[in-house]
Amino acid sequence: MATYLIVDTLLDQPEIYEEYKLKAKPLVEQYGGEYLARGGNLILKETDLWSPTRMVLVRFPDTASATRFYESAEYQAILPISKQSARRTMVMLEGI
Question: What CATH code would you report for 3-39+53-94?
């Protein structure tokens, strides 16, 4: 069953975040992930619980692959770049 990594990102330092994006993409792909959306135009319809800012959607083949990606030493090494340049909420969601 596919697992989707859903990330809402508020960029504080976009120029630094660009470095994170460049380094994260090949790692996502290495672990079987595929970007489905990456910071595209948002059309908000309902925001009772949360109002997203910049969304990223990545599909992994399964939860194990998504978890291996997130917990990998390579990803953990670049995660501080993201934390320095942005605030995020990240969810792994099993789906079809």
Answer: 3.30.70.100
- The total of other beta-carbon atoms located within 10 Å of residue 50's CB is 9
Name the residue ranges covered by the structural domains of the chain. 3-39+53-94
Length of the chain: 96
Looking up tokens 């630094």 gives: 16
Give the 3-state DSSP-derived string for 13-34, with helices as H, strands as E and coil as C.
CHHHHHHHHHHHHHHHHHCCCE
CA-based end-to-end distance of the chain? 6
Q: pTM of this prediction?
A: 0.93
Q: What is the mean pLDDT of residues 44-57?
A: 96
Report pLDDT for 61.
Answer: 98
- pLDDT (average), residues 29-44: 96
